[in-house]
């Protein structure tokens, strides 16, 4: 099993037309790092170019987020903005649809090239649009992998990200982790990556045992906050130490809010406890570090609650990030079935 999400998400801010070229080269490089064969890296570059061009022409405060897929083998390119939105976003991937007197072929081209393409928008000033294009090799198109999204960003001015995240499907459940190494920079990143390695050693173990393994591994680091979620077909378990928050969302609102126990994994840690809660099909579980402002979950607007996990993660990172801190969000739904 490979675990590609060891590096943070690559962020490309589209504030000038020159960013279109940067977006294309970034997507090509990430696709090659993912091992995509043949012409797929060039297709990833074209997808990023089209999405960035669309942001430059029509949007405000637009950003592309580029990374390996959270589950499966491939590359993901997500566009988020605070532009005027679209009245009928489902029509826009069709060739010829236009909102500004252009040919309107850009999103149609993305829709044709991408393995999966999802777009949502809210109509009105500053409402925003979110689009996710995923590109995979033939045979890597399992539908249950679409129910996962994540964004992981370093603090502004930092080269290393002190956060990390991962999600795996095993024979019994889907298990996700968000990690926040104490502080910022390289030492925090080393702690987060060490905890990530411990997670991947045996992610199917009982959650307290996974945290305890991390505690042993992190004793010679600065330590980390840890949040673990295990998703079953109709419920979820949460086990957290430190400032990782967990929420359960439905179209009606936030049904559960959980915060980790006080402590630091690797230093002084209480006995980990598991908290279970219902998670009906169609609901979304969210884990995030304190680089995402927790106030978003107090009364989120309906348009946010209706977003699928890849777009929800991008919307939270784009709209509620504290730029002076490492910021990670992971959103996931329970699969209807597991391998």
From TrEMBL:
Pfam families: HATPase_c_2, SpoIIE. InterPro entries: HATPase_C_sf, HATPase_dom, PPM-type-like_dom_sf, PPM-type_phosphatase-like_dom, Ptase_RsbX. Residues 146-334 form the PPM-type phosphatase domain. This is SpoIIE family protein phosphatase.
């Amino acid at each position: 099993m490979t675990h590609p999400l060891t590096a943070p998400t690559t962020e490309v801010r589209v504030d000038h037309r020159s960013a279109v070229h940067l977006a294309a080269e970034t997507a090509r490089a990430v696709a090659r790092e993912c091992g995509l064969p043949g012409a797929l890296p060039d297709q990833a570059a074209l997808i990023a170019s089209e999405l960035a061009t669309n942001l430059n022409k029509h949007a405000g405060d637009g950003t592309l987020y580029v990374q390996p897929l959270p589950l499966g083998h491939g590359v993901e390119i997500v566009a988020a903005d605070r532009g005027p939105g679209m009245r009928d976003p489902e029509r826009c991937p069709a060739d010829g649809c236009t909102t500004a007197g252009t040919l309107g072929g850009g999103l149609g081209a993305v829709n044709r090239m991408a393995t999966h393409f999802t777009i949502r928008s809210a109509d009105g000033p500053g409402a925003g649009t979110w689009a996710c294009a995923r590109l995979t090799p033939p045979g890597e198109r399992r539908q249950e992998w679409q129910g996962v999204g994540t964004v992981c960003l370093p603090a502004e001015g930092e080269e290393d990200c002190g956060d990390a995240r991962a999600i795996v499907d095993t024979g019994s459940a889907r298990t996700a982790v968000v990690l926040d190494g104490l502080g910022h920079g390289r030492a925090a990143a080393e702690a987060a990556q060490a905890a990530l390695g411990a997670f991947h050693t045996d992610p199917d173990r009982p959650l307290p045992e996974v945290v305890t393994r991390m505690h042993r591994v992190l004793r010679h680091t600065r330590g980390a906050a840890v949040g673990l979620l295990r998703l079953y077909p109709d419920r979820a378990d949460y086990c957290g130490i430190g400032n990782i928050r967990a929420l359960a969302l439905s179209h009606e609102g936030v049904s559960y809010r959980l915060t980790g126990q006080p402590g630091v994994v690797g230093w002084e840690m209480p006995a980990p406890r598991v908290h279970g809660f219902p998670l009906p099909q169609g609901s979304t579980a969210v884990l995030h570090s304190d680089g995402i402002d927790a106030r978003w979950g107090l009364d989120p607007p309906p348009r946010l609650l209706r977003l699928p996990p890849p777009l929800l993660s991008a919307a939270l990172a784009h709209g509620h990030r504290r730029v002076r801190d490492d910021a990670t969000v992971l959103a996931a739904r329970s699969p209807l079935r597991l391998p």
